[in-house]
Amino acid sequence: MAVPGTEAVDLSGAMVLAATPSADWLVVAPVAIPIVFGAVLLMFRHETRIQASVAIIGLIATLACNLLLLLRIMDQGPVVMTMGRWLPPFGISFTADVLGASLALVASLVALVCAFYSTADIGTIGRRYGFYPFLMLMMAGVGGSFLTGDLFNLYVWFEVFLISSFGLLILGSEHRQLDGATKYAILNLIGTTFFLTATALLYGAFGTLNMADIARKADSVREVAPLTTLAMFFLLAFGMKAAAFPVNFWLPASYHTPRIVTAALFGGVLTKVGVYALLRVLVMLLPPERALLSGVIGWVAAATMILGVMGALAQTDIRRALGFVVISSVGIMLAGLALGNGEGLAGTIFYAFHSMIVMAALYLLAGIMNGLGGSYSLRTLSGLYANHPLIAAFALILILASAGLPPASGLWPKVMLVRASLDAGQGWLALAVLATGFFTTLALGRVFILAVWRQRDEAVTAERYSPLLGYVTLGILAVPVLFMGLYPQPVINIAEQAAGGILDASTYIGTVFPEGAQP
Amino acid sequence: MRTLIFRTTAPYLASLMVLFSIFVLLRGHNEPGGGFIGGLIAASAFAIYGIACGVSPVRRALYFHPTAISGFGLLVSACSGLLSLFEGVPFLTGIWTEINVGVPVDISTVIAFDIGVYLVVVGSITSIALALEEREHA
């Protein structure tokens, strides 16, 4: 009940009294839209025929909002909205800067393409079990993670997409899936516990969870609080989420078990949320601590990329091999975090865009290979080139992209990372990035040679599988892959702006706390 | 668990608990209570009813599928936040209005949000409880 006389109280000390322009709603739209669509899809879970089209409409709307949001941020700087009108450190802020909005944009593109592909991959039973509601709620969680400006809220969105990902992972309730999901769930929950512990410690030290507030108070708190310990906690927690060595064992144990479109979503999007959180917390909130830990991060990065790709070389199941390629791509992104200079971070961010699209596309490619050749195993797959030349073309583009060779998208971020490592005098890190590229070429080239080139008389071809939808989805994903490879400058600009935004947080802080508004 | 005493009292107990849960939900605006705890009480009511009389009577009594109920709750909560769009205030700001049903009653998006939370909790916990109870008898 409203207490009588409330009107007389001066609210300006507690609330935002200025009217909120409708355009600011763009910052919550990428979260609100998937939630509303997810809720509706959950209500009509048994209407399996309309599920896919409703989900696709929702994801198109999300993608459009993310695009408009990014354009607005590039034009006018970060956008902030604080929930419930409370003034920032008390209300929960959504703060979108170039980094968050651009990653959210790419993630929603990947989700949309996966939703297209899922119309063929997810049958009536999968829809009945709620594939599309889980998909929408997972994208709400991912969007929220990228756009929130509050550390505890980041934890909440991590939980949202984690819980939804459990649902997607066990869709089908096969024995293997439950086995994979148990490992995934337990190890991820341990990571989440570290995250929560670190957040609680940070709240104890700062008395605030708003990221802009943390960033501006860090220098005064540093004298009295063990911030390096905190940074180490966050590194461990988000490293676990991002699948960095040596806390990455959940990924190879689970990513080959779900439906291929789920694996594509996970491999494309989820680990990058961990990388994003590392960038946000270590680079923007605790930069001196990151500098102190940069040696550790560098070794972790090198180990993750080399051991990841070594794992990929050893596998005969394409999906398992791709799981290890995902890990090695996380290592490459961590290299930029270890360097911590503008070019390195821009390389990391560019690589994150590239990796989201290419990893999702590679998993979808594996799905199509399975559809055409009847198997995920490199022992039996063969002769795809002879019957389906188009699949060979897509495979070649994606393998070049993943290995970092021209003309595809992996080249430029690796160039940036290598140059940044050499400039920083970390030649060994540059060597690790280059060696990873070489081994990735071997690992995926092996897939290409065995599955696509190898001729075999008794080659199995699955009947009545139409790869048309698969070609269309890969075609959509190949456009940004080739664009980023052939004309990288616009993307480099975005990545550099994103890196600049977290290296110098003053614009971010100024957006949340305009001059004069005291906490 | 299907003793005569339990089976006779369970429906009364369950209906009392559901009533109480609504009381707790509405009380929660200014005093201890609210959508989450109210939803838990209602879900335990359905769980008790299910233990006593079997799962299918509960499903019949609920009419809607529990996950559909939680989906509806999520929709209500999200829409109560979206109403702020038309008032020019940020997402999830409480908007108050007064309606007259004999006596003036203040209603707000805050209570709509809480009802949404209540439904989400009722739906999800009930669906988990019913699924577990079903497995036991299968």
Automatic annotation (TrEMBL), chain A:
Q: Does the keyword Zinc apply?
A: no
**Sequence ranges assigned to domain NADH:quinone oxidoreductase/Mrp antiporter transmembrane in this UniProt record:** 149-439
Taxonomy, superkingdom? Bacteria
Is the keyword Cell membrane assigned to this protein? yes
Q: Which GO terms describe its molecular function?
A: NADH dehydrogenase (ubiquinone) activity
Topology in the lipid bilayer is annotated as: Multi-pass membrane protein
In terms of Pfam families, this protein maps to: Proton_antipo_M
Stored InterPro entries: CPA3_Na-H_Antiporter_D (IPR050586), NADH_UbQ_OxRdtase (IPR003918), ND/Mrp_TM (IPR001750)
Q: Where in the cell is it found?
A: Cell membrane; Membrane
Q: Which residues cross the membrane?
A: 25-44, 56-74, 94-117, 129-148, 154-172, 184-206, 226-251, 263-286, 292-314, 321-339, 351-372, 384-408, 428-453, 465-487
In Gene Ontology terms, what is a biological process of this protein? ATP synthesis coupled electron transport
Q: Keywords in alphabetical order, please.
A: Cell membrane, Membrane, Transmembrane, Transmembrane helix, Ubiquinone
Q: Name one GO cellular component term.
A: plasma membrane
In which family does this protein belong, per the annotation?
Answer: Belongs to the CPA3 antiporters (TC 2.A.63) subunit D family.
Protein name, UniProt field = NADH/Ubiquinone/plastoquinone (Complex I)
UniProtKB/TrEMBL annotation, chain B:
Transmembrane ranges? Answer: 12-29, 35-55, 62-86, 110-132
Provide the Na+/H+ antiporter MnhB subunit-related protein domain boundaries.
5-126
Membrane topology according to the record: Multi-pass membrane protein
Task: Name the domain of life this protein comes from.
Answer: Bacteria
Report the subcellular localization: Cell membrane
Note whether DNA-binding occurs among the keywords.
no
- What is the name of this protein? Multisubunit sodium/proton antiporter, MrpB subunit
Q: What is its main location?
A: membrane
Origin species, per record, is Chelativorans sp. (strain BNC1)
Q: Name one GO cellular component term.
A: plasma membrane
Q: Which family is annotated?
A: Belongs to the CPA3 antiporters (TC 2.A.63) subunit B family.
Q: Does the keyword ATP-binding apply?
A: no
Query: What is the residue range of the signal peptide feature?
Result: none
Which InterPro entries does this chain map to? CPA3_antiporter_subunitB (IPR050622), MnhB (IPR007182)
